[in-house]
Design a protein that fits this description.
- The protein has 240 residues and is of the alpha+beta class.
- It has two domains: 171 residues, Alpha-Beta Plaits; 43 residues, Arc Repressor Mutant, CATH 1.10.1220.
- Strands 2-3-1-4-5 form a five-stranded mixed β-sheet, sandwiched between helices.
- β4, α7 and β5 form a beta-alpha-beta unit.
- The chain is globular.
- The termini are far apart.
Length: 240
């Protein structure tokens, strides 16, 4: 009888926040699998590996251009709620297929997660030409919801060696450009730009600063770059 009551109590207990998180996680995994099976794009981890390899190669010495672009579908969170997950999946798949066929063969396309894609271009086009090409991709994007409304996308781009030499910093610059384009109205392409550094009061322990200095020497980069990378990871963790 005790076991029966315990089982009934388990069934009847309120759904917690953790339950919701677990359900969402399972649903997202199913969705990612369905979309990934259709597109067969490499993921964000492979994006970083490939970019790191390119940055450590001879592209700069050979005068080749390396540009990364981050694509984000505008107002996508409304689609699943208004039309259902299957429609959301269809739009992500069509968007990915469109991006792939619209970029040069020299570009590699990746599924970063959700409704976000990434691309790495390595070739002879100047970055201004890549910007114009990405703007054409944005302008000609014609994926629609069942009610006939045309969807839009926003793109952020950054150029290797001109904007940054390290993988994490280059991605951060492209992500900052994407964020700036979103804030300024969406449905546009933004290039990475020189950033103004704003001094902040330091609240780091002596041990943290010593370890940071050691890491900066080991990696051969400035401490400020490492701190920006860390802050960017923190902001992404909390979806800011």
């Amino acid at each position: 009888m005790a076991k029966k009551n315990a089982a009934a109590e388990e069934v009847a207990r309120p759904i917690t926040v953790e339950d919701h998180k677990e359900l969402n996680k399972r649903n997202n995994e199913k969705k990612r699998t369905a979309v990934n099976d259709a597109l067969k794009f490499p993921d964000g981890d492979q994006f970083e590996k490939d970019l790191t390899e390119l940055l450590s190669g001879d592209a700069e010495a050979g005068g080749e251009t390396i540009v990364i672009a981050l694509f984000d579908l505008d107002e996508f969170f409304h689609i699943n709620g208004d039309f259902g997950v299957e429609t959301g999946d269809r739009i992500i798949i069509e968007a990915g297929q469109y991006i792939r066929k619209s970029l040069p063969v020299e570009a590699s396309v990746y599924r970063m997660g959700g409704d976000e894609f990434g691309a790495i271009y390595k070739g002879e086009l100047e970055r201004e030409d890549v910007f114009l090409l990405l703007n054409e991709v944005r302008t000609n994007y014609d994926v629609r919801t069942p009610d006939g409304v045309r969807q839009t996308m926003t793109i952020g781009m950054a150029t290797a060696f001109a904007d940054a030499n390290r993988c994490a910093e280059l991605i951060r610059k492209a992500d900052s450009a994407l964020y700036r384009a979103k804030v300024n109205g969406r449905n546009r392409v933004a290039m990475a730009k020189e950033e103004k550094m704003i001094p902040k009061t330091s609240h780091y322990t002596q041990d943290q600063l010593q370890r940071l200095s050691k890491l900066a020497k080991r990696e051969g980069v400035g401490e400020a770059i490492l701190l920006r990378e860390a802050l960017d990871m923190l902001l992404k963790k909390y979806d800011i």
